[in-house]
Predict the structure.
Amino acid sequence: MRIFFLLIVFLTFVSCQKQPTITNEFLKIEFNPLLHSRVSALADQSRPLMDTFQPAEQLILQDRRIDAFSLQQFKSGTFQDSIGAGKELKLTGIFEDSALKIEKQVYIKMYDQFPQMAVFQVRYKNLGGQPLLVEGWINHRYTLLPEQKTTPSYWSFQAASYPERPDWVLPVERGFYKENYQGMNASDYGGGIPVVDLWRTDAGLAVGHLALTPKLVSLPVRFDSTAEGATLAITSKRRLSLQTGESFTTLPTFLTVHRGDFFRPLQSYSQMMQKRGLKFKPYPETAYQPIWCAWGYERGFTVEQIEGALPKVKEVGLDWAVIDDGWQTAEGDWFLHPKKFPRGDRDMRALVDRIHAMGLKAKLWFVPLAADPGTRLLKEHSDMLLLNEDGSTQLITWWDSYYLCPAYEPTRQYFKGLITKIIKDWDFDGLKLDGQHQNAVPPCYNPAHNHARPEEAVEALPAFFDMIYQTAISIKPDAVVEICPCGDAASFFNMAVENQPVASDPTSSWQIRLKGKAHKALMGPQAPYYGDHVELSDGKDDFASTIGIGGVPGTKFVWPPESYFNKETGHIGLTPEKEKIWKKWISLYKKYQLAKGQYVGTLYDLGYDRPEAHVIQKGDTLFYAFYADDFNGTIELRGLPAKKTLTVYDYENAKNLGTVSSERPFLKAQFKKHLLIYVK
């Protein structure tokens, strides 16, 4: 009874004090006496994101979750650090019962440069008299009120990797659940972009972590059938024992409010990560050149097939020729196939010389960190293997191979030597690094590697690819390094160690476009995003979905047209009819070079706006790309300069479509699949 009375007195005292709040013109975060919080987006006409205080930060123990800590003190002020200046709020709370006493500290920063974002650091300390067994933690667990005006209830951005290769942008209705674990979700599928976003037509909330290397956390999204709204969070299953007086701190995490789709939150996240120390590679001119890939002939290709297609590759207007899977004896043993290259290195160098003689650049495919059973590499260097906790090997199912450990120095040196051979000795101009397994690796327990923690392998993967990049450009400064994770949700951390991102085996034209918008947000508005082989798009010919959004086009056609049937994709021969189409689109790409323009990602909402729209700015010209199966109505051209009348031009079909202005930005339009226009 006495404890209950003291609690009432304490809560009454706290309620009489100023409520802990941190706010600016865009964002407000309030706390109640239990350290529960409420987030508000302060943009005009935004409805509340949530109408109650919520237990956003939680400590997970073996037998329960602790989500209520009695507020002891708080302090607000300003700060200046290496990133910039802003406002801060520090709060301290206590949880106490007969067996436990735990202190919780929450430290929040709002940077002037990132006014829609709040950065959190949460620390838990064991003040009790016995060890505290921790199973994990949760940050930013918020339930958002749903959309009222239209369906779906929410659109979402969720980029975790699964064998089903789901879209990164998904509608969220009742019954939805996705864990979005950033570790391995299958034997060779894992990693992704550690940000989730839920948005409505008026406002949205995104959360994520700010660690500079991959971490084994989940970012679940759930909308139960009876719930008030959908919930997002960041969760970590981090098991540790805290002795009396010991503490641990969660990863640095963030939340950001916004209007529109995921573009602005991803852009802000990337900019914050760059401020924290992550740096993207420069994009050479060569990364913007259109691509032909010999994968049209699949693994059984012959040198004669490639050489026979090169004149047509040049005639169509392409600038790269990629030698794909099939040149090697095995994954892991990167020796030249003796039937295709009987004279070994001399034959490979001769093929590259012929590519160069055609005025083309040469790129070579290979699979890093994979080694087939029975290869010489594994017989002589089995110490390179990544091992599971039980001592077993980790299978890469697609290649029937085993993982090698990226944190093990002999593994790094082996691949450094291979890159040197490819770029220097064989004279290739770029690399196509392929396979979903390179997006993430599991923890490594190989005792030969002397890891301080098994997770070192997970965290070392980007540094492994940085070694490949640095080795390549040390030989050829304009070398192109493409990481193709084969349908994974591309790892954000790998994006920083390549200079050509790719749509990576898209399952639809929609995936080409949404992945393009995400890459432009994360890697910069001029990132040379490669739309992958056009034969993987809708109708096997949808160049518009790559070119219209500022992507780099590519193809894997075979020539002569009936010379080979592609078992993966079907008929992809370059018939005379197709040749006219291919030449037209490559010519349009080279004429306007939209990949070098500024992708303007905040004008249209990829989820709610119809028709779907994308905008590229080049100088004083705005290029618009609209997409729909069949559209007949009025489109709005957003972002037009004030007080000017502008002519609208259909650059695909060379037609004037009328005039618009910022006062009257509407255009009557009828189209199937797409409409590509510019105003100048």
Observations:
- Residues 1-16 have pLDDT under 50 and may be disordered.
- The longest strand covers residues 621-636.
